[in-house]
TrEMBL record:
<dbReference type="Pfam" id="PF13377">
    <property type="entry name" value="Peripla_BP_3"/>
</dbReference>
<feature type="region of interest" description="Disordered">
    <location>
        <begin position="397"/>
        <end position="421"/>
    </location>
</feature>
<dbReference type="Pfam" id="PF22177">
    <property type="entry name" value="PBP1_XylR"/>
</dbReference>
<dbReference type="GO" id="GO:0000976">
    <property type="term" value="F:transcription cis-regulatory region binding"/>
</dbReference>
<dbReference type="InterPro" id="IPR046335">
    <property type="entry name" value="LacI/GalR-like_sensor"/>
</dbReference>
<protein>
    <submittedName>
        <fullName>XylR family transcriptional regulator</fullName>
    </submittedName>
</protein>
<dbReference type="InterPro" id="IPR018060">
    <property type="entry name" value="HTH_AraC"/>
</dbReference>
<dbReference type="InterPro" id="IPR054031">
    <property type="entry name" value="XylR_PBP1"/>
</dbReference>
<dbReference type="InterPro" id="IPR028082">
    <property type="entry name" value="Peripla_BP_I"/>
</dbReference>
<dbReference type="Pfam" id="PF12833">
    <property type="entry name" value="HTH_18"/>
</dbReference>
<dbReference type="GO" id="GO:0003700">
    <property type="term" value="F:DNA-binding transcription factor activity"/>
</dbReference>
<feature type="compositionally biased region" description="Polar residues">
    <location>
        <begin position="412"/>
        <end position="421"/>
    </location>
</feature>
<keyword id="KW-0238">DNA-binding</keyword>
<dbReference type="InterPro" id="IPR009057">
    <property type="entry name" value="Homeodomain-like_sf"/>
</dbReference>
<keyword id="KW-0805">Transcription regulation</keyword>
<feature type="domain" description="HTH araC/xylS-type">
    <location>
        <begin position="291"/>
        <end position="389"/>
    </location>
</feature>
<keyword id="KW-0804">Transcription</keyword>
Length: 421
């Protein structure tokens, strides 16, 4: 008879309200599913980390968020195998002693966002951070990296921390955000330390009539689907390697459960890339009427607006607005509205379970037939064919060649900083 594998009781101490933590948990789940590991997972039903009493927990191992000082303190005397997860730091004292540590690469994430804004032709840069706090060490590290990057280029980088999110301070916080953005030189590229902060700033810009991305090109970090759903202008974001972090941490703990030891091992996982959407697609335009019109179109194209409504918003005649558009963009206002609606429809088709009727309504097409006609005319395929082509492309990219795998490991895989056994 086959020997029944030992069941290990593992605690996952994370806050599932954050996309970063949820993706780490997903990576741990992927590792368990792909191996013979048999783990009984302890996880709070509301996904919140409640470390009280964890030092008395009668389990076999723990994977925890060590950017949370409460969790770090609670696990200080725990003798069980523990794998720590958190941000990367230039100061070695920021890492826990005698624990293996899997880190998201803060430097590469901020550098990726900064380079993206430079490539968009911007010359002024700012960072929207979080108030200084032991819980926000990772945000202050991203500030330091931003300051180093801009300083190395001889640029003054503007940093704003704002206030913490709360119902009581919300109105005042929005007013302060607007005042800060208005004080910045324009056009400006802004990196937000999270998508949540980016969403707040994007909302403030829309409320104040500050054109995004013409005056403010904005990019967040996390690639949080919720942040994209809650904004009229789709939010660009750096995609963290958090799923890979979860897989890596689970692999380390699996080995530790069988006797391996990795004290002071630090593994840095780079970002996956950038999901580039409308909020950071800055293009140099000279005429303010075109900038105003594009700002309005990005917000309301999918609500079925017409050229006359755009002209009314800008405050000029339709014929004048058409002249400015053709001179600067080489296309009509109607073409720009349709282009934005088509991009929105393509994004919805790329999500599993999307249907043409739902997409036609959501993206401002009057009928499913009109949606089909636009796809055939502009892309040479039907919405269903586009969806099938996209799915086939994903399948091909999921099965790279051996040489591609070797290349990827050399350039984008987790990096081992220090190892002590």
């Amino acid at each position: 008879m086959a020997k029944t594998p030992t069941v290990h009781r593992i605690a996952l101490l994370f806050n599932g309200n954050k996309i970063f933590d949820r993706e780490i948990i997903s990576g741990i789940g992927e590792y368990i599913s792909s191996t013979r590991a048999s783990w009984d997972l302890y996880l709070e039903e509301d996904f919140r980390c409640r470390p009280q009493g964890i030092e008395r927990w009668a389990g076999h191992g723990i994977i925890a968020d060590f950017d949370d000082p409460v969790t770090t303190a609670a696990l200080e005397g725990v003798q069980l195998p523990v794998v720590a997860i958190g941000g990367s730091y230039a100061d070695p004292s920021q890492y826990p002693a005698n624990r293996p540590y899997v880190a998201t690469d803060n430097y590469k994430m901020v550098k990726l966002a900064y380079d993206h804004l430079i490539e968009a032709g911007l010359q002024h840069f700012a960072l929207y951070s979080l108030p200084e706090s032991p819980c926000n060490r990772w945000a202050q590290e991203r500030e330091r990296i931003f300051t180093d990057l801009t300083g190395a280029d001889g640029i003054t980088g503007h940093i704003y921390r704002g206030v913490g999110t709360s119902a009581q301070s919300w109105d005042a916080a929005v007013e302060q955000q607007i005042a800060w953005v208005r004080s910045l030189p324009k056009p400006v590229g802004i990196i937000a330390v999270t998508d949540a902060r980016a969403r707040q700033l994007l909302q403030a810009c829309l409320f104040a009539g500050i054109a995004v991305p013409e005056q403010v090109a904005l990019i967040g970090i996390d690639n949080d689907p919720l942040a994209r759903v809650l904004t009229r202008i789709p939010l660009s974001s750096v995609i963290q390697g958090s799923v890979e972090m979860g897989r890596t941490a689970a692999h380390l703990l699996h080995q530790m459960l069988h006797g391996a030891r990795f004290p002071d091992t630090r593994i840095m996982v780079p970002p996956v890339g950038i999901n580039v959407l409308a909020s950071s697609r800055h293009e140099v335009r000279n005429h303010p009427h075109v900038m105003q019109a594009m700002h309005f179109i990005r917000q309301y194209a999918c609500q079925g607006i017409k050229t006359d409504q755009v002209a009314d918003y800008v405050g000029i005649s339709r014929s004048s607005l058409e002249w400015y558009f053709r001179r600067e963009l080489g296309r009509s206002v109607h073409d720009e509205i349709l282009r934005f609606k088509l991009e929105a429809a393509k994004r919805m088709l790329e999500q599993a379970g999307s249907h043409a009727a739902e997409i036609a309504v959501s993206c401002g097409f009057t009928t499913v037939q009109y949606l089909h006609a636009v796809f055939k005319r502009e892309l040479g395929c039907t919405p269903k064919e586009y969806q099938e082509q996209f799915a086939a492309g994903l399948e091909r990219s999921a099965a790279p060649s051996a040489s591609a795998v070797r290349s990827k490991k050399k350039t984008t895989g987790p990096s081992l900083l220090t190892t002590t056994k």
